[in-house]
């Protein structure tokens, strides 16, 4: 009787911890973009919001349709594209928690995962990563049912193929998850479920080929030739970026290094590296199950492919955001092992991450709502708030100048970047100088 009471007390205590963590994470997610001078958007966000704004016109094929359509969906309820993107992120956060709770599938681990400052930052971002994360969880769940023999034959192939195709329609890098799934089936071909993984991987691959010829080539037949270029970066540079990217990806507290360098980066990379060593140690000491082995296999395969594609495809350096779909399974398995060892004490890691996130957010705070108000007044006064705009930049590396365009896109998403000086003669082409002549933008100290 006493043991039963202790068990019930522990469950009640853990439930309260989980509720507290979820509430704090939600509040922090909202503050993360409100206390940012441009609302947590970047140059790619401009493309996503413009795509959603002009749809059903196909604006570009650089991105799949999934994320822009998700933003578009919420505009039917009266939200603009910016706020729609934030609802997508928060909805993804709630879906992960609800689904894992309902299915009793890594729920405790998911609560801590979502509280990590890096994932919290992703949910607050106007990017496709927030949307892909719940689909990664669905993919892992379907794969688990197949490995455990609860989903078989044609039904298993259908659901696994569907999850892979859904992932690809959100981010092209999901091609690596398809490849990892098929390769896992080939390597372990003697296992009962291997055929399902191979067939599903092939179906996903066929979809990618059809997507390329029927969609991408239809709207932009030069897409592949424009983006493929051998020898983009030297190995010496890519290896350093890989190390730094993995150390920030698996740093549970701070996921952004100081671009200017300095001693602080040694601490950031150091914590991440030590955590990677701890992950490896726990995975060796506490043997991985078949499902956990599959998760890690797909994750490592995705990371390796993300590294090698940089040799011929222009992408950003490896970081926490690009690695999120591949790091998520690793984090889930890692937290499962930590719960085995430390039980409810594992939640402390989530709270410490939230605390570091609060400190970082406060130190680097800007005022998005005030900046939005200023920019909106400017655009309305110039009668530029509802018409297609251009924003002139000399180069894509003009990060300081592009921040003005990023803020502008949260009000009028129908904005395109231009690099032609002649375009600046047009009234509908804006420059940083033209805008900052008339308004003042509140900027944080840490750029």
UniProtKB/TrEMBL annotation:
Asked whether the UniProt record includes Membrane among its keywords, one would answer yes
Record keywords: Membrane, Transmembrane, Transmembrane helix
Top-level lineage group: Bacteria
Question: Which residue ranges traverse the bilayer?
Answer: 16-35, 82-99, 131-149, 170-189, 195-218, 263-284, 293-312, 347-364
According to UniProt, the name of this protein is Glycosyltransferase RgtA/B/C/D-like domain-containing protein
Q: Which source organism does the UniProt entry give?
A: Chryseobacterium indicum
